[in-house]
Amino acid sequence: MEEYGIFQVTIPLPYWNDNVHCYLAKREGKWIIVDTGLKWEATRKTWEEVFAKHGIDPTKDIESIVLTHQHGDHFGFSGLLQEWTGAPVHLNEIDRELSLYGWTPETFQAYYLSAGLPQESVLQLQENAAAFVRPTSPYPTDLQPLNAGDRFQLGELAFEAIHLPGHTPGHICFYNEQKKLLISGDHLTRETMPYISYHGYGDSNPLQTYLATLSKMQAMEIAAVLPGHGPIFYDAQERIAEVIDYYRSRLDAVRELAAGGRTAYEISLAIFPADRSLFQKWIDLGETNACLQYLLTNGDLQVREEGSQKKYYRD
Length: 315
Hints:
With 315 residues, the chain is α/β, with parallel strands linked by helices. Helix content is 36%, strand content 21%.
């Protein structure tokens, strides 16, 4: 992709996937950035090194910053990067609204206690910036809407913004029809399964949204996927089929585990390895909740409030 003036920028993360891929594209002496990384010092250091490598003056040469979605590892550094470069930030309006959401201690505790997490775990998670969502700070002052159909010249290639929701409600991918290239953000990845989760806000049935999106993507011609995590890959349709199969199997497992009445956390512990860190258990719970929301919406499960907890049953 570098022959087309598009460069992958890999930025470290302190959790989970270890790093995130952003993209940098040159056009007529100006540069566009796709995704920004997490708000922490390693991100600034990486961008400093990348700008120096390419001879970029960040105060003059960055034309715009476009974002696939609002999660912290993609959006978190956008306000600081805008202060640094003066470039406008483009984000889909649905995700812009979601990016303004923030937990209060009371709502956070109530939600996760109802899911069956022990209070001690809830209090520990409340100290984790990735779990206890707060609006990005500093928030971009020049935040422009990014809509499906918008076009960007990334290097020598024209890319169209495509709304592919599921990972977030406003997730945008960028597609070049000429070379059949997809900059996929977190929508489609190879190394790890794309993460579809529900944590009490946003789309109430994200897995149904995601599976419907994948079904539509089966008609797309995709020669290569440039993801937000993991390797670039060239078997998009095979991967789409694998992801659909994975989540269909996960739905079957959750449906069976809920037969006798369990909390979301109990179901999650029955599916995933028990020796995971608390943060990873929070990740696992998000995926389990997405499956439960799907099954509830489609009438496969019922939920009952028992004290402060919600328990799921099959009729």
